[in-house]
């Protein structure tokens, strides 16, 4: 492992994305006036049925809980999103065809049609909130795609370790580091385990019982 940090611009940490909480809250409050609650009593609640059975595009409101987004082609876990969040405002049937949405048990979710959502935005003059959230959402999707495209195995592992460490400690200590990385990438288990072992031996990370305890210092940009 190369312990020297490369200071080239391309290796600088990206500006962290910040969810526009106020805009999301305003939109959800507006949309809930006509939205219908979704039953999430099962262990895994596949929301794809909402997309396939309705003749119109849905907008999904995640109030509390989590939605996991898998890429249909290879079941890669593209992202896990906490509430509050909104999906479907782009109005793209293509997105619903290539991604599968599933909610964790007990998540609070509502659904309305995209036409209803757009009509409410127009009627209530909420275009600024809509654009602010859409800008964030588009940047988030670009960030997720950029994580995997033209990246080495180490760069992917490094980015996912940093992402995992940002998860609240109580939740993080229930997550297997290896599984977290493998579910979100197409990397081989042997390669991931080798990188994790090297980072541990270099005292960059602390892992106990398969859980990420801490990042001891900045992870090297190159392996």
From TrEMBL:
Residue intervals of the IprA winged helix-turn-helix domain: 153-221
InterPro entries registered for this protein in UniProt: HTH_46
Highest taxon listed in the record's lineage: Bacteria
Descriptive protein name: IprA winged helix-turn-helix domain-containing protein
């Amino acid at each position: 492992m190369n312990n020297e940090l490369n200071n080239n611009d391309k290796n600088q940490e990206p500006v962290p994305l910040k969810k526009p909480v106020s805009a999301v809250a305003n939109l959800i409050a507006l949309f809930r006036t006509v939205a219908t609650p979704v039953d999430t009593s099962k262990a895994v609640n596949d929301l794809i049925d909402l997309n396939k059975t309705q003749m119109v595009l849905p907008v999904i409101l995640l109030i509390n809980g989590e939605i996991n987004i898998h890429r249909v082609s290879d079941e890669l876990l593209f992202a896990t999103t906490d509430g509050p969040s909104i999906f479907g405002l782009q109005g793209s049937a293509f997105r619903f065809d290539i991604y599968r949405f599933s909610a964790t048990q007990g998540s609070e979710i509502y659904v309305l049609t995209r036409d209803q959502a757009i009509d409410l935005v127009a009627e209530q003059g909420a275009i600024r909130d809509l654009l602010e959230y859409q800008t964030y959402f588009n940047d988030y999707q670009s960030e997720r795609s950029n994580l995997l495209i033209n990246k080495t195995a180490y760069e992917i592992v490094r980015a996912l370790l940093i992402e995992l460490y940002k998860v609240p400690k109580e939740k993080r200590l229930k997550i297997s580091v290896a599984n977290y990385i493998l579910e979100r990438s197409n990397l081989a288990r042997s390669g991931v385990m080798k990188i994790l072992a090297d980072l541990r031996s270099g005292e960059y990370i602390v892992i106990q019982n398969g859980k990420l305890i801490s990042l001891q210092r900045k992870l090297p940009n190159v392996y």
